[in-house]
Known about the structure:
This protein is mainly alpha-helical. It contains 2 helices and no strands. The chain starts with 5 loop residues before the first helix and ends in a 73-residue tail after the last helix.
Amino acid sequence: GNTLDLNTQKRLRDEHDHTTEKNARKKCYRKKCSADGCTKFVQRGGVCFKHGAKMKVKRCSHEGCTNYAQRGGICIRHGAKVKRCSREGCSNQLVNSGV
């Protein structure tokens, strides 16, 4: 097994600089959290989740329902249509690319 702790693994990964043109094109730059000393990526409002970013979760608009909205502001129980598998004879919910 790998006996290196997470901080050591991260440091080694950061030190290993990919300088090939192929890897340089794929590099994505993201903003860091604005909290002092935090190196996590911004999620919402300039901060990471640890420092107060909140995810907006929409609830079903049907009166008294607390389920998460899936499509059109309502949950599956109250009529949101779910995509189904496109294979003949299969009625499972869609997982990936129509199958």
